Amino acid sequence: MISSVEAKPKIGATYVNALRSQFGPAILDEAWQAADQVTLTVELNYLPEIVETVYYRLGGWLATVIGSDERPLNGHFAIYYVLSVEGGDENGGPAHEKAYVVIRVLIPPHQPEFPAVSPRVPAAVWYEREVRDMLGIQPVGMQDKRRLVLPDDWPANLHPLRKDAMDYRYRPVPTTEEETYDFINVEGEGIVEVPLGPLHMTSDEPGHFRLYMDGEHIVDADYRLFYVHRGMEKLAESRMTYDQVTFLTDRICGICGYAHSVAYSTSVERALGIEVPERAEYIRTILLEVERLHSHVLNLGLACHFVGFDTGFMQFFRVREKSMKMAEILTGARKTYGMNLIGGIRRDILKEQRAQTLRLITELRSEMTTLVDIFLNTPNMVQRTQGVGKLETKVARDYSPVGPTLRGSGFARDTRVIHPYAAYDRVPRTVISKTGCDVLSRTLIRAEEFFGSLAMVEHCLETMPEGPILTEGFQYKPYSYALGYVEAPRGEDIHWSMLGDNQKLYRWRCRASSYNNWPPLRYMLRGNTFSDAPLIVASIDPCYSCTERVTVIDVRKKSVTTVAYKEMERYCIERRDSPLKQ
Amino acid sequence: MVWKLVKEVLRVGEATVLYPFVPAVVTAGFRGRPQHDPERCMACAACAVACPPNALTMATDMAQGIITWSIFYGRCIFCGRCEEVCPTGAIQLGQEFELAVMNKADLFEQADYRLAACSRCGVFFAPAKELDYVLILLEQAGLSGEELEERKALLGICPSCKRRSDIAKLVGLDQEAV
């Protein structure tokens, strides 16, 4: 079942031609990983200009950036800028083909630096900070000198993803007791600084926020995450086999774990040209949509909670239980875990399970119709969310956010439609987007997508073909690589895998959807009131659950106050007795 | 709108279940605690190789000639890869999911198996039960008589002695001389 990549017509060749005519000799190499996936190795000095051209002129969106230590392979460090190119939305580019164009540069190890792309394409900021942390390659020209992933007490010259740096179990001695992170400093008459976080015993996914306040209004925000970085990429590259990593990818997220698992599996399958049996593609599609069901209901429930409608919260969570039951019936666990192997699926859907699932779909559809109707007509709901937490179209374009966060700002981008994977090219799909740019738009999108997902699961269960569910007996080809992508409930999850020669991945890069949604959050918070902050953060449905406490720094009085997160949440719900006035 | 909500709440009634005072029912194909059948197990380590989180491990005591299979339920992710790769059906995932214990040691389970010693050099080299299993497979494959005896003798030899004897055969030397 190994198919030849070369035989298929190439999608995206027009973009390559456009780049060749503009940059000519700066493009050193062209390698196709799939019919719609091409990697161009370019001259290091032309990197920012080429990425900018792909991003703004050819209609590219930054999907992920991979830093890789390829010294053992070709004597260089490599960086890959992955862009989903979808046709020129500015100055009318060439065609409207949807392809992944990867811009790759090689960096000599004796001079580990590269010209930063982020001054031209803001979406690259986090990625370039991460490459600097993990591989010790300096982005020249980037303003932000702070660490992103590594903690403050990590030794200065230890870059974990360098192949010769360290064992994956090594824990270096902390170099400092203090937090040395340099939060941005906003000063001015009456500006009050409100830090949230970073840590509390009960918070499973901590983050540290600072809100800069003028009275009740947020002037700016800065935040720091990665307090619980688990070193999964290093772990997978060091210890685990290809099949074992599918189970690790399940655990990336408590909500969209299956999406990660499919993204990883497809990246390896694509690198090897393995064709997954059609029935397995349908089962993957079904399970991905089941995951979206429970994720979207969870977020709708939280939206209720934050606008003070706790009865609605309880009702949504009661109904959500039916989607969890669906997962249990179909996969044998309440979470859609442990279902993938490279080449397909481990467990078939039997007749009785199909019938039970179809019954649950009917129940979910009718109950959710009632609940969503009640929710949207709750007087508080629209009033609290309309025009709040605006993600302006320009900011959205610059930062490449994904999922409902982006679709709420007028861009109809959904990986299921743009780059169909699994069986999505065979199911009825519509991209739901809104132009409000606010919390309301993002919430409405989730509500509508829920019903779309129900229809997809139903369609797949009714039309899926008989047949095998797992392709076996293929050979792993060392150092082949490709992308895998999935539209998870919060947006696109993207994985890039390069196979090794020892039954392990040489390099595996995983990017969760929230990674692209965090940077523009700053702009969503600006201009809103303190009491709306939890609501706005929840509207991107971030992969981080609790920011436990809030420290208030009043610049005028030079005073510091700490407010418990519970108190801030209470204020968001009740909107009286501001904790800032105590 | 409030009426609609009240109506819905009344229609649904009590949603809370009595668990843990009544048992929670899981679906038929639920993947719960892996159950190990030490009688069927032959300590081949296929499960330990497949186990993604290293919940299943093997340890060998070369002095005593013991190989130990062990599971740490605290690490288990209930993926069922062990069940899938086990050649003898010695591991099966059950329906049990309440695994909390007061004492961490209660989350470990282990089984010891005897290693066979090489008939030439006397060093322990493979689980005795695994060799028995291979022998049964050979018989099932239709081997008998002299051929079976020859294979049987080979089975009792450790890999390094086997290598030595192969080289000896190839170059036509007396085995003792190698």
Please characterize this protein's 3D structure.
The complex is a heterodimer of chains A (582) and B (178). Chain A is of the alpha+beta class. Chain A folds into three domains: 13-180, Beta Polymerase, domain 2, CATH 3.30.460.80; 190-225 and 515-582, Enolase-like, domain 1 (2-Layer Sandwich); 232-386 and 466-511, Cytochrome-c3 Hydrogenase, chain B (Orthogonal Bundle), CATH 1.10.645. Chain A has helices at 13-23, 47-57, 71-74, 125-135, 232-239, 242-250, 257-272, 278-306, 310-331, 351-376, 379-385, 393-399, 404-407, 415-418, 439-463, 513-517, 521-525, 533-539, 565-574, and strands at residues 27-34, 37-42, 60-70, 76-85, 99-107, 113-115, 138-140, 191-196, 208-214, 217-224, 340-341, 344-345, 481-488, 491-499, 505-511, 549-554, 559-564. In chain A, the strands form five sheets. A five-stranded mixed beta sheet of chain A has the order 1-2-5-4-3. In chain A, strand 14 and strand 15 (505-511) form a beta hairpin. In chain A, helix 10 (351-376) packs antiparallel against helix 15 (439-463). The longest helix of chain A is centred in the middle third of the chain and has 29 residues, at 278-306. Chain A is globular. The relative contact order of chain A is 0.13. Residues 1-5, 90-94, 200-204 and 545-556 of chain A have low confidence and may be disordered. With 178 residues, chain B is an alpha+beta fold. Chain B has two domains: 22-117, Alpha-Beta Plaits (2-Layer Sandwich); 130-178, no CATH class. Chain B has six helices and six strands. Chain B has helices spanning 2-12, 46-50, 81-85, 128-140, 145-155, 159-171, and strands at 34-36, 56-61, 66-72, 91-93, 108-117, 124-127. In chain B, the strands form two sheets. Chain B has a four-stranded antiparallel beta sheet. In chain B, strand 2 (56-61) and strand 3 form a beta hairpin. The longest helix of chain B is centred in the last third of the chain and has 13 residues, at 128-140. Chain B starts with a helix and ends in a 7-residue tail after the last helix. The A-B interface holds A 240, 243-245, 247-248, 250-251, 311-312, 315, 318, 325, 328-329, 332-333, 337-338, 346-347, 353, 370-371, 373-374, 377-379 and B 1, 4-5, 8-9, 12, 15, 26-27, 29-31, 50, 52-53, 77-81, 84.
